[in-house]
Amino acid sequence: MPEAASASFSARADSSLAVSWPMRVRDPRLGLIERWLRYAVPGILAVFLACLVGLAALHIQGQRAEILAGAKAEVEGFARLAARAIVPSAGKASDLRVLMPESERHLGRRLLLVRPDTRIAAAHPPLPSDATTLAQVLGDSEPLSGLGERAGAMALDLPGGESVLAAIHSLPDGAGQVAVLQPIEPLMRGWSARARDQIVLVGAAILVIVGVGLAYGLQSRQATRADRAREQIRGRLETALRRGACGLWDWDIARGRIYWSDSMYALLGYQRQHEYLSFGAVNALVHPDDGDLYSLARGLAAAQTCVDHAFRMRGADGAYVWLRARAEVMPDATDGGRHLVGIATDITEQRALEETNAASDMRLRDAVEAISEAFVLWDTGNRLVLCNSKFRHLHALSPEDAQSGRSYTDVMGRGVLPQVRRESPEAGLALTDMAARTFEAELTDGRWLQISERRTKDGGYVSVGTDITSLKRHQEQLQASERELIETVKDLKRSRRTLELQTQQLADLAERYLDQKAAAEAASQAKSEFLANMSHELRTPLNAIIGFADVMENAVLGPLGTPRYTEYCRDIRESGSHLLSMIDDILNMARLEARRVRLNPRPIPAEAAVASALGLVEAAARDKGIALGVDVQPGIELLADPSAMQQILANLVQNAVKFTPAGGRVAVRVRRAGASTHLFVEDSGIGIPRADLARLGRPFTQVEAQMTRSHKGSGLGLAITRSMVELHGGSLRIRSEETVGTVVLVRLPAPAAEQKEQPGRAAGTKREAVRPGARRSAAA
């Protein structure tokens, strides 16, 4: 199941949208209970607070009553014990002190010994001096004196305002009474602290419960607003999904259950029956040819986070619907699991349109491929849209090189542009129209193409190349036949008038030809003899001049006396050598014109011949700082006379070094080209003007002007070289540009197989020299 690296829609598992769908309340009774609880909980909290306050108050009051009851019982018991322990006849304050020791428990307690006449006989602690009777201590309205022991312990308010617990018990034999007074305030100190702590605790609980109630109310109100907003958002999202033919998926990977939105059910025509769908139920709806959800689950288990997949699912009517699912794995903050959340879009119409477009595109490509012309279509950005095999064959392109979407520069850079010999516009077509043009081009291989280029409406252009070679040849044949017919008619018309004159002229011409031929042969013989005699006459003194100048330059017989004489001798020797070389060139030219040169061509190694020629100019190149380069393919042989080939290469490389400035380069390359061998001599010299290329190779011709000549020479070297090359059955071409350099191409026939196997037979083949210019040579 293919995956993709992006998802178009996803929702976080802890967002309001993701939580709202699975937690929607579907039972109305639960919704009613939830609304009732929102109002009942605050009331319950108020009742609880009231009960809590009441119970706390009752508890505090009960503790006070319990403390007083215990204190009364203790005071009454103490009074009874004191009455039994006091001896009436000896009752004193010291005895009372013994009965009531100092203790925190009896803090403030007072013990009184009362006589039968209600006067106080002793007290501990002592009373003020003015308090002598029990009525003065307890007050006039106290009931203890009348009730006695029957009253038990009673709470009284003393005249000073102090609240006490008082109890009276009679002594034996009517000897008097014992009264015990216990202040209430010391007894209540512990109770007050405990009551205060309980009040603080209850108050804190009340604050917490009130805060919880307020928070609950705010949360309930916020939840109500959130539910309304959630329902609005859910409704809007469902509407958007339904209108966009989309359905939302929420796949709980850990539990193996899938949630679908209502729009997804509507998209497939199903009715929702359960909140969630099982993994197997959804997988059963997927078309078997489009994979299954198990492979997707395995990919998700392997840390895949995004899904982008197109597949088919079976609808309620049994038909399959094309869907494109885009989803992303999101963590669930509630349970820590992972959910695959995304949307599935109905692309059935898109897939049908793509299939239709693919079929149309295939038919179009078949139609373009079937046409006999070279066809190519470029878009507005000069990127390739479509081409056929004829176009690829024309430009030597492979199918990988001519892929759709590549730029024009990239495609044409991978191919080979056909060499065009000439172009001609099609008759009757205005070439000023920039939207379209048609022209005819003749290729170097002899083929003719009619190329039609048209602009498309989107800004691109289409080009169609039609092979019209047969049509052009037929047209040329018709034109030639027409011209021949016209010339024939003219010749027939003139033939009658010129027939008689031609007879007489032929006779005169024959006689004049014989005379001129004899004069030319005599002149040529005289020139050859003159040149031979002159060469002998010039060589003899020149050899003496060169020899004696060399002897004097090297001071063989002793010093000359002045160093400047040595320089003069070197100048004499160099001038003599230059003059001798010019005489040799003139003699060679004369021998070529007199057809006295005999060649013995045989296969010779190209590497050896080039190396020998370059050895002659190494010193001169080194002095000028010229770089010499050799590029000869191994195993190439030249079919030529060794000495003639040596002279050809020597003349070419010497000229290249001579006309190349210091710091330049000279290179010699040899290549095999079919039945010929091409020898290139390239230099980065001063170059030759285009207008002077036609004069090169003529005897005694130099390109430089007479007043601006900077290089010595007779002007015969290139003429001799051209004659030698033509004598071998080859040709010499020159291509040059001023300030850029010159390239000289020597084309020689390649040795045949039998000549390589039997070099002796090749050695027996001889050629006679021809006059320079007898064969046509082109300079480019």
Automatic annotation (TrEMBL):
One of its GO terms (molecular function) is ATP binding. Residues 750-780 are annotated as: Disordered. Residues 533-752 form the Histidine kinase domain. Its EC number is 2.7.13.3. Residues 471-512 form a coiled coil. The keyword Nucleotide-binding applies. It is an enzyme of class 2 (transferase). It catalyses: ATP + protein L-histidine = ADP + protein N-phospho-L-histidine. It comes from the Bacteria. The chain crosses the membrane at residues 36-58, 199-218. Residues 307-359 form the PAC domain. SMART domains: HATPase_c, HisKA, PAC, PAS. The keyword DNA repair does not apply. Pfam families: HATPase_c (PF02518), HisKA (PF00512), PAS_3 (PF08447), PAS_7 (PF12860). Gene3D superfamilies: 1.10.287.130, 2.10.70.100, Histidine kinase-like ATPase, C-terminal domain (3.30.565.10), PAS domain (3.30.450.20). Residues 754-770 have a biased composition (Basic and acidic residues). This is histidine kinase. Keywords: ATP-binding, Coiled coil, Kinase, Membrane, Nucleotide-binding, Phosphoprotein, Transferase, Transmembrane, Transmembrane helix.
